[in-house]
## 1
Amino acid sequence: MPAEKPVLTIVLNHSDAESYARLIARRFPQVRTIVAPRPEQLARCIMEADVLLASSFPVELFEHAKKMRWIQCTSAGVDSIMPIRERIGHITVTNARGIHGNIIADFVMAGVTLLHWDFRKLLRDQAERIWSPHFVAPLAEKTLGVVGLGSIGAAIARRAKGAGMTVLGSKREVSGPVDGVDRLFTSEALKEMLPLCDFVVLAVPATAATVGLIGAAEIARMRRDAFVINIARGQVIVEAELIEALEARMIAGALLDVFQREPLPQESPLWDMPNVIATPHISGSATNYTERVFAIFADNIERFLKGQALTNVVDLARGY
């Protein structure tokens, strides 16, 4: 007898594709998976995919994805899909929003502490055996502003409020209170919020409206003793203008986990700046990341097989 035709073919274009394949096989033996972590592998099999799981969408292969009905992104951001969003109305796009909030809030609050106490200087002093004590104001006397109050931004706001900080927030629509946020500003009123903050945390998705959101004009509104923390996307900041501001000490410093080019080029001055902490896009990298994504994906596979509406669907008009 011929083998029974699989009910669904899922192509796995991810560095941890083998793990996803094992998890799917245990839970959904009737589903076929194709492991294709490398670009050349994906190019060979994308025409077979009903579903694609990937960290980013290979736009150049879209024309070959004739069968595709659903894309599951393993990240919250779906900016890689934006160039063709007008052409993929027949494909449902879901993301991994909801799994990053707590781990990114950990990262941000650790960064706030490192910047506030100037741990870079403390470590340099230790290396040089310099004893140089100094006084620092309690964090509870400081104000943290969160730009973007989705699930990640809201988690950061709650954590900062739990540390006793005054928390301000900026979001596209201000229709009601947000837990942990003392005062809300619309996106149009961002420049009013910036001068009030000791720390400005960027937690917006990368969309046409947020590319270049923070440039020279916005930095000029910030206080000279303020810090910027970017865990959003590198494109949200005009990087060259931020570098100029940091070199001129227009602001106190920055914690940057994302950059316009990744990996950060070796020639970038950000590597060596004494008032910058640069990290390799790790703020959302929990140790059980694959299992967290799979929990969302598995629930949606169940829904897809039953013809039910999927969760975590991305509004491509908005970009999140």
## 2
Amino acid sequence: MQYWGKTFEDGQWHHLRRHCIEVAAVMKLLLQSDPALRDRVSVLSPLEPDHTEELLVYLACIHDLGKFSLCFQHQKPELAVLNGIPEPNGREHHTLLGTRFWSAYRLYRNTGCESARIFNPIAVAALAHHGSPVSVGMQKPAGLKRFFGPCADDALQFNDEAASFFLKHDFPAGLRDESFQSLSWAAAGLFILSDWIGSNDIWFGPDSDPTSISDYWNEAQKKAERAVRQSRILPAASADTKSFHQLFQYLSKDMSPSSLQQAVIDLPEQHGPELLILEDLTGGGKTEAAVLAAHRAMRCGVSQGLFIGLPTMATANAMYSRLAGTYRNLFKDADSSLVLAHGGRALHDEYLDSIMPMGEERKSFEDDGGAVCHSWFADNRKKALLAPCGVGTIDQALLGILSSRHQALRLLGVSRSFLIVDEVHAYDAYTGHLLANLLTFHAAQGGSAILLSATLPSVLRDKFLNAWSKGRELAGADVAPFAPEQGGFPLLTRLQDEALQEIALESGRQINMPLECVHDEDEMFHSLVSVHEAGACGCWIRNTVADAVAARTRLIEEFGLPEKDVMLFHARFTGLDRMKIEQRVLEVFGKESVPEQRSGKILIATQVVEQSLDLDFDLLLSDLAPMDLMIQRAGRCHRHTRDCRPRDYKSPLMKILMPDPVDEPDEEWYSRLFDIGQYVYKHPAMLWNTARLLKDKGAIRLPEEARELVESVYGPGVEAPAVFDEQELKAFGEEVAGKSLAGFASLDFSSGYNSNEGQWDNDTLTPTRLGEESRQLRLLKFENGKLSFWASSGGESVTVKDCMRSEVRVSAKKVKQAVNKGLEDDVEELKSRMPDKGRWCECLVLHEGEEGMWSGQAVDINGDDVEVLYSSQTGLEVV
């Protein structure tokens, strides 16, 4: 009989046998063309390299055995009738049927082994190649008869043909049930990748003629070679050794490497996986040091690219712009791809402009100096981590160790890259636990990584070192015991299988930030008024959006500052407005800003500015926050050397709004001043210790006091007034629950791909962070009798960009459901034209009011009516 494997819009179809052979050809070419990948796979396999390759190519060839089923063939009834396929008696997905077929017909016997459990991990990785594992089950052939009928004989014949053609070696004795568990993760990613490339009609067009493997194999390999070459999936070659200034051409020629950067340059050649931890001040050149380390690993053949994971989309955008003009110095090929990987990348015009259509070559790099991204990496966010160079939120990598569809593809991409994680102190207990597990997976699969921080508590450093060591042990490495001892700062920590090395460094930067403790909010406002009048610039970092909005409103309405001089930056703006504000903030307060831009400008912001954004203020104000964040915020004051600061602001100063850290505080010590902020920072003892230490010190002096400041708040045995015990116990319980949830949610490398069955979500639903449940609002405008997006591109068709530029996230407690009274049909019609049909959001209609304020109606979690207000100046508010 004839079997279709792929169909096309014009009615043509591609034979199932051909598709399976093509996917096998892609798999073989990936392994043979990428020696580093072949080596990593071999380390995880109990077989010899050639034998491992044979097994993977064979399984790739039978990955779609389930498509021989009657029910799959009848998904196209006209083809099933044309090809003489009988009607099915039941329906099941073809991946489940393929896996059950493998077990029921004992196909593992082609290997000469009698135990199904030995091969189940890798068989499930191949046969359940649609992104999540399925149960092998205990099905017998009779139980599959209603699904396969007479087609079972053809499926068996094809399997026997594939086994005879590809499996040339006898399998060794002594294989155990867990023998292929470690290999199954990398294999799952390779099967998905091979199938995605082998399913692309650009390279594998319709051909309905059946063929034997032997007759078609050479032609399939030629097609696979073209597909792999044009997809750019093979690693880009590293550039030859380059000097510091050749790699970072944006730096001044007379600028020497910092001590941290020089320490990385001086490291010996890398011969295997390793973990580096770099601790230094903000602005100390940690990013350049990390890129130097990545290039070293690439030159030594240990890594094949790099991915930089950051805490937020704003910091990822800033890093992308920073790398765009220089990353190509790391590679021999001038058109190696740089990918931006986060949920809002469709809003980033610079990135979108860099995407090249398939098959095109870009030739004039010298003219524009910009980045380039080949379209195959850009057309699906799940492929982004496969690019040779990537920047994004760390969430994109964390999805590789969660029960998220196609996580194995992300994991495969991360394993090829040198993983750089910035601001590692910035995550809660849940995300921190996930990051530790990611390091375990990455180490087990032969990757290398570097962690960057200015304020890393020793307990976290030890946690990450132990997670890495565990991964190396899972890879079968002989890991030497280690015990961290060094308490210096700055510090370079290097963990290899053989030993732990700790290198104390001198800091090239000193921070002596005088502090002024303020207990009255009015004083903060008067300070900003003085900044404005003096022609200086200042920033007040507030702990909540509500406090930030209120502060801006009061500065304008009560203190009379011009609206144009008081900027507001927080996370509750639509994608369009937030990108505009972020760009404006960088222009006014960034490194290249000039006095004319900065004069009299005030920024009221939330935590969005405290990490990785290169901003510089003449005066910095801050609400009290935990110590590590206070240190981060201090780095935004007098960050750059400027000769033109106004007279009274030539010296740095940070004013902190805080309650007085008295010896006997009451339970409301923090919440009395920060009514909403108490729900953001839930450890009053930590805050009291931070306030007490900062008050006693009178300044933040770095690097000499960096360890003391951090360990005196986060270290073991830190004491605080007993009045906080109950609140601390509650917060501790939430953290323990978060860690437990992270342990439950994240995957277990040692168990193998097939053992992690259960609820696998779409990657847009799988949580990489804990916090208050939120809802995505997609804002629509109703004006002149017409409904449109808040940020419409103006075209007739609805694009992903239209949707994302119009979205803003809000607490699910505040908005449960939009109420678009009288416009329900219009909203449904617009949703029908949206790429996602509006499935993952609430579409809220806004009507224009006075002074640029728009409003809409909704109900909250209690079913009460609420009004939603939105302005491009102040963002979203629910009243």
